[in-house]
Specification:
Shape: globular
Structural class: mainly alpha
C-alpha cells in the first residue's frame, strides 16, 4: 500500500481512533473494489454464492439469496461513498480513491492533480476514518 500515514495519533487529536480500529476500518475500505465486483456479478440468476459467509444463514430461495447479497454489498458500498462525501464534498472522490485503493497523496498528485496540499489531504483522510468509525458503530 502506498499510503504511509501514522496509524495512531495523539489521543488529544480531534480525529483520534485507536491504532487497531484504524487498521480494521482501513482493511474494511480496501474491500470496496471486491464488493463492487461482486455486486455487479449478481444479476438475479441462480449462481453459486460468491461469498459463503453471506449465504450461511439464508433460506433455499436463490432469488432471495441474490437480493440479500446485493443488499449486503450495496449497504457497504453506499456507506463508504456517503462517509467520503460527508468528509468533504469537494474532495470526496480523491478521498474515496485513497481509502479504497490504498494510494498515497503523491500518487493522487501525480496522476489526478489533487487540488490541495498534503497536510489538508491527510487531515481529510483522518477525518474520513473518524467519521467511518462513527458510522460503523
Amino acid at each position: 500500500m502506498g499510503t504511509t500515514i501514522r496509524p495512531e495519533l495523539s489521543e488529544r487529536h480531534r480525529y483520534w481512533i485507536s491504532r487497531h480500529r484504524y487498521y480494521e476500518l482501513k482493511h474494511f475500505c480496501l474491500q470496496y473494489p471486491e464488493w463492487k465486483k461482486a455486486y455487479a456479478s449478481l444479476d438475479g440468476m441462480s449462481k453459486r454464492p460468491l461469498d459463503p459467509i453471506i449465504f450461511a444463514n439464508c433460506h433455499g430461495d436463490p432469488t432471495a439469496r441474490c437480493a440479500e447479497a446485493k443488499e449486503f454489498y450495496s449497504n457497504r458500498i453506499e456507506m463508504i461513498v456517503r462517509v467520503a462525501k460527508e468528509t468533504d464534498l469537494a474532495m470526496w472522490d480523491y478521498i474515496l480513491k485513497g481509502v479504497t485503493e490504498g494510494v498515497s497523496y503523491d500518487h493522487l498528485r501525480a496522476t489526478l492533480d489533487i487540488p490541495c496540499c498534503k497536510s489538508v489531504y491527510y487531515d481529510l483522510y483522518r477525518r474520513f476514518f473518524w467519521l467511518l468509525n462513527k458510522a460503523r458503530n
